[in-house]
Structures are given as structure tokens and as C-alpha cells.
Write a structure and sequence with these properties.
Elements lengths: L7 E7 L4 E6 L5 H5 L5 H15 L5 H8 L4 H10 L7 H10 L1
Helix pairs in contact: 2-3, 3-4
Length: 99
């Protein structure tokens, strides 16, 4: 996933099972104009989860956890809304066997 230069990401530290990441955006960016400031955290978590899933770096369950979805069904709905193809275990096995 390519991150635009104007995004500066700082990892604050690690707790037991979470990493806190801070993203600084200019107030004038088109993202902040289209997404309410109170919804930015959810929007960024979902976007990250979707992209990691699309690149097959995380499973559906992990993507749901990252996105803050209540369950995998809700994550499937998020993926569908963003036009992401669902990867089944069978498809993953076929891809692994081809390597």
C-alpha cells in the first residue's frame, strides 16, 4: 500500500496486543473535508484492514479485528462495499500450490 507523502505515521509504543499509530493530516486535505473528524479513526482502520486483506497479508478474521468490525460477516460487508474480492481458503490453497 503506497502512503502519500503528506501522511506522517508515528508508532507510539506496543502494549500487550495493540500498537498505537498516530497519523497527522493537514486540515485542508480532501480526506478531512469528506470524512468527519470524529469518524477518521474508524475510516483509517477500515481502509488499512481492507488493503491488508486485499494484499493477502491478513486473514478475514484479522482484517475484521483491525477494522473494529463486530464479526467476520460485518467485515465481509465492508469488503463488499469497497469492491474487494473475497478470498476463500480454496483459492488461497490453489495459489500456494502454484508457487
Amino acid at each position: 500500500m503506497r502512503v502519500p507523502e503528506y501522511l506522517r505515521v508515528t508508532v507510539r509504543g506496543m502494549e500487550a496486543e495493540t500498537i498505537r499509530v498516530e497519523v497527522e493530516l493537514p486540515k485542508t486535505s480532501s480526506l478531512t473535508a469528506k470524512v468527519k473528524e470524529t469518524e477518521l479513526n474508524k475510516f483509517i482502520r477500515e481502509a488499512l484492514a481492507v488493503e491488508l486483506y486485499r494484499e493477502r497479508k491478513v486473514s478475514l478474521g484479522k482484517a475484521a479485528e483491525i477494522a473494529g468490525a463486530r464479526n467476520t460477516w460485518e467485515m465481509l460487508m465492508i469488503l463488499n462495499k469497497r469492491g474487494v474480492a473475497i478470498v476463500t481458503r480454496q483459492k488461497m490453497r490453489k495459489k500456494t500450490l502454484k508457487r
